[in-house]
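Lab notebook, bench 4. Still working through the backlog of constructs that have no structural model yet. Next entry is a single chain of 311 residues. Request: give me the structure tokens for it.
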Amino acid sequence: MQKALFLFSTMLLLIVSCSSGSNSEAERNMSVGVAESATKQSYATEDAAAPQADGSMPADEEVSSNARPAPLPSPDGKPNTYIGDAKPVPQLIKTVEYRFQADNVDKTAANVEVATRNNQGYVSSSNFNTSSGVKQYNMVLRVPNQNLEKLLAEIDKEAVFVNYKNVRTSDVTEEYTDIQTRLKTKRDVMERYVEVLRKKAQKVTDILDAEEKIRVLQEEIEAKEGRLRFLQNQVAYSTLNLEFYQQSTIQSEPNVVSRNFFSDLLEAFVGGWHSILGLIVGLISIWPTLLILLGLYFLARRFYVKWRDRK
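Model written out:
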């Protein structure tokens, strides 16, 4: 019995050792295969990245060098405006529409200009008009965002009655970030074209093509930079459309002058004289017609006299 157990244990150990050896061998073969595959892939990448005989880069490499990771969509489906892991600073444009009644529009206009200058702002435009007995000023003010509330508080002191005061905020963060990203991409592409023009372009056609691409990119960059500067100015300065008015004591129509009999008689005499002059001028203006009618009259009279004598 003991001998049988010994033989069974020995066979079990041999089976376990053989299975473990085969597993180790399979793992070694798998590791070697993976290493050989990685080595072949590395060689293929190096061969593809190697420059051609004319010194230019392969097409695949140029595409991969220009490729950029696509932004991940946000949960609400809108484009994500994050750059990397940093959240962009909100870019907000503030516009205020303000209309009120003032005691003295001239004094209010002077005070508004002084308050605007004291808050590092400026008057973009100013118009004055009087209509239907109402004096009115229309002013457009630009003031730094951080001083907007202070300026509004000073203008509130000039108001007798406020018709409306509306504050509107426009968020241009997405457009601002998009322009910055596009500018960086276009500058990088233009630098690569400049590098090609300096070192790799040898034919005249290649040189002209690179110069044309650089010209187009430069125009697009300047347009984007202009739009970016406009947004920066709109974000840095708030716009205040101000309208204030004053009820004027000026009468819309003058008083009617009183009339009497002699003034009416004189006016009638003058009107009749002008009528006579107008008739004379009218007759003189139609003298050709009168001359023709006079000639026809004499001819008709002559024929009539002859016809009567024959009888």
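Notes after review: Confidence is low (pLDDT under 50) at residues 18-85. The radius of gyration is 48 Å. Flag for follow-up if needed.
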